[in-house]
Structure formats: C-alpha cells, structure tokens
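User: My collaborator sent over this chain with a note saying "see what the structure looks like." That's all I know about it. Can you take a look?
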Amino acid sequence: MREKTMIAKKINENYNYTIYACYAGYVVQAVINNLAPLLFLTFQREFGISLERIGLLITINFGVQILTDMAAAKYADRIGYRASVILAHACSAAGLICMGTLPFVLENAYLGLVASMALGAVGGGLIEVLVSPIVEAAPSSHAKDAAMSLLHSFYCWGHVAVVVLSTVGFTILGMDRWYLLPVLWSLVPILNLLLFTRVPIRHLVEEEDRTPAKQLVSSGIFWVFIGLMICAGASEQGMSQWASMFAEDGLNLSKTMGDLLGPCLFAVLMGSSRAFYGKFGEKMNLRKFMAGSGVLCVCSYLLAVFMKNPLLALAGCGLCGLSVGIMWPGTFSLAVKHCPQGGTLMFALFALAGDVGCAAGPGVVSFVAEHLPKFGLKAGLFAAILFPAVMLVLLRALRKDTALR
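Assistant: Without extra context I'll predict from the sequence alone. Here is the result:
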C-alpha cells in the first residue's frame, strides 16, 4: 500500500509524466485522424459511399476540430487544462467506439460514420489546442523549439502505429471484421485519460500577463503565422489523408503494400524529420530549415504525380512526409519567440488555422479529383502543390522581421 502511495505521489509531482502523457495525447490524435483513411476504400465498397462523400468525412473531421478550436480559445482557460484534456480523451474514445458500431446500428451507415467522426474530432481538436501549451508550460532544461518538435514527432509515431498495427489487425481478423479495430484503438485514449487525472499541470501564461486578443490579432506578423499554419496543415494532410487510397486505387497496389509503402512511409519520415530537429535543432536556423522543407515538399508532390513507376510515386509520398515534418511545430516555435505572452488563445487560434488547412488540403484534392476523373487523385495532388508554394512566399516575408531570426 505504501509503495502504491509513493508511486502515485511520484506521478503527481513529476512533470516528466506530464510530458509522457502529452506524447501519448498526440498518439491519440494520430489515431483519430489516420485510422478512418485506412478504411476509405472499405467504406466505399461496403456502404456504397462515393468519393465525394468520403472527402466530406475528412472535411467534417477537421471542420469539427476547427469549431472545437474556436470554443477552446474562449473556454479552455476558464474550464482548466486538466478538465479539458480529460474531456478530449473521453470524446476520442467515444468516437472510436462509435466508428465500429454506429454504421451497423443506424439505418443510414453514412450518418453513423459522420457522427463517429464528429465526436472523435471534438477530442482531437481539444488535444491539439491543449497539449502544446501544457508542454510549453512544463519546467524543462531543453530548448523549447526542439522540445516542441520532439513532441509533435509523437503524432507521426502514432500514425505509424495506426498503420502497422491496423494492418496486422486486418490480416489477423480479416477485412470483414474491420469494425473491431476502432474499438480496440479506443483503449489508448481511455488509458491516457487515467494518466491525465494524476499528472501535474500548470498554465502557460497567467491571465494578467496574457496578450489581449485584440492586440494579438491586430499584429501583421500574427497573420503571417496564421497563413503558415494553414499551409502546414494543408501540405501535410493533402497527401496523408489520400496516401492509402492513392496507393490502392491510383497505383493498383494491394491493401497491405499500399498502406505500408504509402501512409506508413509518409509517417515514418515525417516523424524522423521532427525527431531530427528535436535533437539537433538548437544548432540550426529554423526559418531556413522550413524553407528547404517547403522546396522538398513541392518536389515530392511532383514526384508522386508524374512518376509512372509505382515505387517512385510512393517515394514521393514518403518524401512529402519528410518535408512537412517541421512545418507545423516549426511555425509554433517561431510564433512563441515572437509572441511569448500569447498564451492558450494564440495556440488555439494557430490550431484553428492549422485545422482549416487540414480540411482545405484534402478537400482540394478530392474536389479536383472528382471533377477531373480522367486523372483522378493525381490531378488532385497536383493542385495541392499550391500550399507549400504559398508557404515559401510567407517564409520569405519573415526574413524582414529581425525578432524571428
């Protein structure tokens, strides 16, 4: 009994456990965002859902996350970080359980998928808003921008785990019992919810020290960061959400090979990019690193679109993961240096902008693919090059601001 009390006390007082819980929080968000795309072709075949309505599921996911970001910007500080992050995990678990049950319970299977995606998206949106400021506020001896990149790398490792473990699950259980996988994945947010009830949490900026909302949004450079977040989300999810279907349908690969060489390779390289910067970032110029990543992102999309050899096209998918890795956490880190008193509001607004991009990127891909059926997803992915190109323009604008160098 005494030993259990000591362990509980250790968890309650040690901020390392807070960081671990935040790492796991990004794994939960990875499950929410990336499990359904592995099943898009299954949804299409089993429930007769069109490509356009599948694209709408992505929009609903990130659209609800946007609304959640807006609500969190206003209420998260009032409710408190702990209560909010526990609610986030509860919604995430419920959404996953519903994904495996509602399509078979409701008369309209598509409405069941919509409801489960929306419920999970509430959890994913809250996690996105809360985890970064919780880590930023935690005492640490490491450089914050490197720590932020390492934190965001766990989203990628979660993505890898989703693809690999789900592929194993599909193989063992069979695709006809795919509905068991979301229910099993719900254990991850349930267990992390329990951890968040115990770990120490402190606020990033006290209320009296926060930059007022009006002052924050009136800054021109703030809107440059908003643009960067939109482009980061769109560049990442434009490829990530469609990689599995692109590999299966566009490149005629098997489900297993398509998932392992498409979204899995994407996630591995994206995580490697973030982990690399997390380890060596103190010695690098972040803005230049992001600019180089933007150029590589444009090249990777072109490779995926124009290479006739399936393996070379999949190499483009993988390189896209490598290129987008630093975009999201890098923008957060640059913004924190420029607006150190932005607090939860700033993180919420950036998360909102990022989710706008996460919805816009896949949305553009599906819209163009639907209206150019001759070229399909290749035409859609080509259109998505717009986002890393705009990011390069915005990064160039940051060169004029000496505070960010």
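A starting point for your reply to your collaborator: The first helix runs from residue 2 to 13.
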